[in-house]
Amino acid sequence: MSKRSAEDQLNNINNGNSQVKTTQNSVPKIEQVEDSNVEIGEFEDPYGDDFESDEEIIELDEEQEDENMDEEKVEDQEEVRIESSIYLPHKSKPLGPDEVLEADPSVYEMLHNINLPWPCLTVDILPDNLGNERRSYPQTVYLTTATQAAKNKDNELITMKASSLVKTLIKDEEDDSDSDDDEDMDSDPILDTETIPLKHTTNRIRVNPNSQITGEYLTSTWSESGEVLIFDLSSQYKAFDSPGYMIPKSSKRPIHTIKSHGNVEGYGLDWSPLISTGSLLSGDLTGRIYLTNRTTSNWTTDKTPFFASNSSIEDIQWSPNENTVFASGGTDGYIRIWDTRSKKHKPALSVSASSSDINVLSWCNKINHLLASGHDDGSWSVWDLRNFKPETKPSPVANYNFHKSAITSISFNPLDESIIAVSSEDNTVTLWDLAVEADDEEISQQRKELKELHDIPPQLLFVHWQKDVKDVRWHKQIPGCLVSTGGDGLNIWKTISV
């Protein structure tokens, strides 16, 4: 996975929510923030502000009114034609100098933007005790991220509680009925944060999925220094809901540091979903994967790494149903399946899956034999692991080349095995429904009526624009809710499509 320096990322922090394209090959222009002391937690209005005019009202005669009405009709017709077209940021004609790219509130059920002081390349969600299948509003989300600051001393691990997250759907003007929660819908979102100072930038952050069960919010970070830090964020989580609670100083330091990688950094990082006490895999740029387990008294890391080639390990995924099996993807284009019981620490299977780097992986937790991979050439695939056999090159069960830049994150929806979220360096997050058939009558009719749909896969559900998006995560307790991070901060969103 390609990496950008903190200085480059800083130049792409968004100072507003409107983005404008300026040249044919450019992405929407972002104004540079000159003041680095941006406060954490400034929620943006994703739809801009409305301004009332204080100009003098001039009365028109009938002839002028008729002329103006004719002009308005022409303008309205032009607007209708413009609105009927489909705009894809990385495929459509670039916007003109006076055109602005804005989110359409009618296609989002929820959309909230959070400004951050520095770019963050990674994000993860903290499981909470507010219940599963939460569909009513306002919503609350707990999450954690870590920074890519220009100076090492400015880096932080940031834990957040975003509450009072309301719907952003446009209310029907004809609907005058009162709702019991109208008062809640008018409230502003609230963000509480707790920070932990870090000495280096963070490549990836992951939270133990068993935290809700154990009460220990074990969180690991892959540091640019080559260290893997393990924190327990349970005190930070408690502080959000316990007014006056003081976080102990010991909770602002890592409870363990993995130094087996030396000074070699990496990206591959994953907690086992089946070993609640804590079992962590970390893979580095030299192709080494270390397994760290928690014992009754401390943490132990195997001295012998899992190793197959010198190519960088870009992502790691534990199996959702076998507690000794995991998959890895790397810059050599191979997907490898490993078993931690192997005394030789060699892969059980190696499959050539891409002619470019494999940047990211996602193992479906509902259909255990499905694994998705995202590649550096912009393509992504879904594999049936039952077809993985030695000395063979299986074909993916699905493959898409819609994105034109490297895939930066891929994730199966934990509540719907047919839905996948994919983020790319083309500044978009796309949602896909693999259950859609290409010969569906309704889709076929739409493709006939709109020429823009001809080269768009029928499985594509939604396109979300976000500058320099790097990581996207599904919220397992709020159906359809995603959190994505990029150069312009965090987005918490849910579309009407999922």
UniProtKB/TrEMBL annotation:
One of its GO terms (cellular component) is nucleolus. Residues 8-27 have a biased composition (Polar residues). It is found in: Nucleus. PROSITE patterns: WD_REPEATS_1 (PS00678), WD_REPEATS_2 (PS50082), WD_REPEATS_REGION (PS50294). This is Glutamate-rich WD repeat-containing protein 1. InterPro entries: Glutamate-rich_WD_repeat, Histone-bd_RBBP4-like_N, WD40/YVTN_repeat-like_dom_sf, WD40_PAC1, WD40_repeat_CS, WD40_repeat_dom_sf, WD40_rpt. The keyword Metal-binding does not apply. Keywords: Nucleus, Repeat, WD repeat. Residues 33-50 have a biased composition (Acidic residues). WD repeats lie at residues 306-348, 351-393, 400-434.
